[in-house]
Amino acid sequence: MPISQHENDLLTRVEHDAPMGAMIRQNYWIPAVPSSLLLADGAPVRIRLLGQNYVAFRATDGSVGVLDEQCVHRKASLALAKNENNSLRCLFHAWAYNTQGEVIAAPNHTGDQGEFCKKLRVNRYRAADRGGIVWAWLAKGQTADSVAPPFPALPFVDLPADQRSVTSVEVPTNWVQAVEASMDSSHVGVLHESTTQITAGGGNERLLMTKALAPKLEFEDRPFGYRYAALRGLPDGQVYARVNHFVMPWFGIICPPDANGPTSVFFSTPVDDVTHRAWFVHYNPNHALGMTIMSATPDVWNFPPLPPGTASNNWGQNRDLMKRGHATGFPQHLGTEDFAMFLSQGPIHDRTDEQLCTADGAVIRVRRLLLKAAQDFAAGKPHAHTQAKDLDYASAQSVGGVLPAGGQWRALVNVPTALPTATQSAKEAA
Q1: What pLDDT is stored for residue 411 in this prediction?
Q2: Contacts of 414 (CB under 8 A, 6+ apart)
């Protein structure tokens, strides 16, 4: 069933005092910038999250901080500031901030600077450098004693640096469109048919997705979200099973192409209501990652590439290439294919007039989880997905494989099953 306009607004809007943005700000660590972009005593990096502007920087001692972009004094941009002596110093009047967000110097103030600085109203945020990403907890009203939400220690976070890659790019559409796509199994064999053929190699199991386009979906709730199996029947009676995870509020953990191959984590963070930052983490828990379609990037802050055109020329789609057999006419990257779909949906996708089918069960669950989280937050209820006692982000390990006729997909999963399975039905998707 399509959702109402009120629900669509609640789901997508994050700016100002929107319940979704406030819920995310309070309850989640937000990816802010790739770690490699921040150098000790280097230039601060401007970032925009949930409709507000910030700067991230790495201090002399290697610690990281995230601050409001504008200095609390006369509102000059701290993106212009000097980064030295373990502080970010505003160019306008030399007010200085440490990585904890405290003003530690106001040299143009006469009298006791220390006491003066203590009385200033400053938004303090937590920052953490883990997994090749600098993350921020942006809850308002933080003090030194504030308790941060559990850090999302997903399976890639504590791997050696040579076993993962991190790339990111800003996309001019709402964030939920991209989150939904990360859990949309049935689009892969259609939209990514050619990129799968190009990147998967002969005999790779991912090629099976292009042969069976209507997967049967089965679900299990998890403390952090859910996992689901997309089951594709093969002509010989075997079943190709892909078990993926959705981790609130935006992580899609996608199974590797084979047992020893790299896993992908796709997540899309809201820049504002009509812009998101798409993140791609590629990692291999077994050995060094090496060169992959994700790690071979010239710019970790602007990759994969956006479509090369605009709506006036179908976003640069190459129809001549399609005549020669390419499925989409966007050969740049599988991410480029996704971005073209998001752009074609519009800045904020209108979900009030959709006609869904059985393949959309995982997308429906994403919406339900996000809507409930925003509704609970607005009602003052505890947030279930960061307060669960058995929250274990490391268990969100996605797997895939070919099962014999009658085989069960749980045989692929090492994490014990604790919750009942719900098979997606046409009735639920209607």
Answers
A1: 86
A2: 397
